[in-house]
Amino acid sequence: MATKLTQLQCKEVICVSDGRRLGFIEDVEVEMPEGKITAIIVPCPGKLLGFGGGRQDFCIPWGCIKKIGPDIVLVDAKPEDCRVPRPKQGFKW
Fold it and tell me: Rounded to whole angstroms, how far apart are CA atoms 68 and 70?
């Protein structure tokens, strides 16, 4: 089954262990040169368009994904263990 990144970004990520809504997929981590997806990236709660919230995101390993449905992605991972700092990016003038 082929899926585009834009289709994944419309799906909400939910943790099956506690039912917590983590947010929507923002990006994916890809292993090069194979092109294999290794993780999905979900912004930290409270972020809106990349602003606000903390400087951390959820980086959920692909192996923790249990089911990809039409509207949601079910994951079996502790959100606290999946937090990773977002790289600092400065303004480029």
Answer: 7
Residue 14 phi, psi (nearest 5) = -125, 135
pLDDT digits (tens, 9 = 90+) for 66-81: 999 999 999 998 777 7
Sequence-ordered list of residues with C-beta below 8 angstroms from that of 27, at least 6 positions apart, any chain: 5, 40, 41
CA distances from 69 to 14, 34, 53, 66, 81 (A): 11, 25, 27, 10, 24
Token representation of residue 42 = 């979900």
8-41 pLDDT, tens digit per residue, is 888 999 999 888 898 999 889 899 888 888 999 9
CA separation for the pair 47, 31 (Å, rounded) = 26
